[in-house]
Amino acid sequence: MHLQCSNVYTGPDSHFQAISLMTIQAAQGLAFPSIDIILCATQRCGSTLVVEDMRNSAVLGMPEEYFIPWTKRQAKTSWQDAFGSICKRAQSSNGISSIKIMANQLPAVEECLATFIQPKPDCSFPSVAAAFTSAKWVWLKRDNIVAQAISRVMAKQTGINHATGTLDEDHFAGNLLKGYKDDYNKNSIYRFEAILNQVVSIDLENLCWKRFFEKACIQPLVLVYESVIAGHDMDHLELIGDLVNLESRINKMPRKMIKLSNSISAEWEERFFHDLAKVDY
Fold it and tell me: Beta strands 19-20 and 37-41: pairing type?
């Protein structure tokens, strides 16, 4: 586990004295944990699958979307304390910590971190960049963003985001269908505009991550969902482990979560491209 030296505000005034979290904690005789691995994602890109693999490994942290409840509307929240809590909860037993951040969560996370982090100059989301200076970044993307967009629309209509193979399998994921049924989405309705809007959103969210990495001078490990799902040896775990010089053995366990896409998803994709060909650009 790394110790992170992040700057914090000593007050709301713009003329603040920048001091480090590490200095504060050292003075109090405490160790301030940081995040070692950050999984950067967009909704429905397959990130929960990678999170399951990392959690099952027992040595790559306990990634989760810890920032979901973060919003400055919670005015009485101490975001510095909340951040410290995340850093601790995100650790596996060997001290490695990891989290997942979605692109659409970045504005809210930036606002909250900015209440105590000195921003990194010339960055998009400068407080996010400053808070995780020692972290290793993993960027998960899908090649087929139309399939990703369909997955988003399907999830919104069905209320189901993930599924396990059998009824008796527990899983950490939300909006979970226990015991996958191939007709779970039989009542879903194809909507061209909804899918098109999500294609645009995914493209913009990926551009957001790209811009963030460029401005912060970060070279992330890029994982492609289609390669991860096809890789039966789970080689992506070794690639992630190499980022933090992991020497421990990585457990590779069968996933409980299974793919939701089915013949209806495939039909929607064909219809989308058929309809797209008729659009007057």
Answer: unpaired
